Amino acid sequence: MRRVFIFGAGYSGRAIARVLAHKADSIAGTTRSAERAEALARMGIKPLIYAKGGFTPELTGTLRETTHLILSIAPGENGDAVLAELIRRGRGAMPNLQWICYLSTVGVYGDHNCAEVTEESECQPISARSHRRLETEKAWSRFGSEIAVPVAILRLSGIYGPGRNAIVNLVEGAARRIVKPGQVFNRIHVDDIAGAARHLLDAKAHGTFNVSDDEPSPPQDVVAFAAHLTGVEPPPEIPFEEAKLSPMARSFYSECKRVSNGKLKGRGYSLRYPNYREGLSALWKTGLWRG
């Protein structure tokens, strides 16, 4: 039996649920509102309300049957509330658990002066949110070790896909071509996040895996390619020093690294969209760029 539970059935969580639909006996997922719960139900996901305020009786009962746990909720200032509650309840809270998957971020690597990073590279996070992510990775790994359940940590690059991509930004007038010489970012299509999760679940894989595309690229090139696809004039280039950025956006530009996905590929996974050009082209041709 495969009974999947997704804490945080948002953008990535729903994509994972879709690819597991024919592989799982049941899929449950949490959301914070009744409106979103209805949307999950229409997808065939058993919706459960969770707002970091403790587990409801229904949620507790579903966890007892769960065999595969997927976590896609960012930790708060006090850490991961889900993990804290599970530790408090003890091993009996999930007696059938076989595998844990925690969705993290490549932000835990921090800045590597645009050099390549692998899963063995030193993590030197800069932002407070990335520090929390790294500590939460370690906490889930310890928890898995204590209860003898394999834990896969998926470090995700910048996520794009239907409704969340450079084409949408361009059409809505929000796209900017900010140029910082030498700056590159990796990206990952949400379908490849889902595909990688399914692949690693099948193998009950344990360890840390970078889930990233093959081609770290300057952000302005992505906007220019989106303009090429849509046949519109790309927005003008803006020097980084002149760009008005939010503190969070500026923090992204303070880090540069080239993320290796060699370990994931070595486990037999083939990217559906190995670079942003293939990913955006598919979204444009199918009309799914709108979401």
Give the helix proportion (percent range): 25-40%
Number of DSSP-assigned strands: 13
Report the CATH superfamily of the largest domain. Answer: NAD(P)-binding Rossmann-like Domain
Level-1 CATH class name of the largest domain? Alpha Beta
Output the strand order for the largest sheet: 3-2-1-4-5-7-11
Q: Give the C-alpha Rg.
A: 19 Å
DSSP helical segment count = 11
Q: Report the span from N to C terminus.
A: 32 Å
CATH architecture of the largest domain: 3-Layer(aba) Sandwich
Give the overall average pLDDT: 97
For the sheet with most strands, the description reads: 7 strands, parallel
Structural class: alpha/beta
Estimate what percentage of residues fall within beta strands.
15-25%
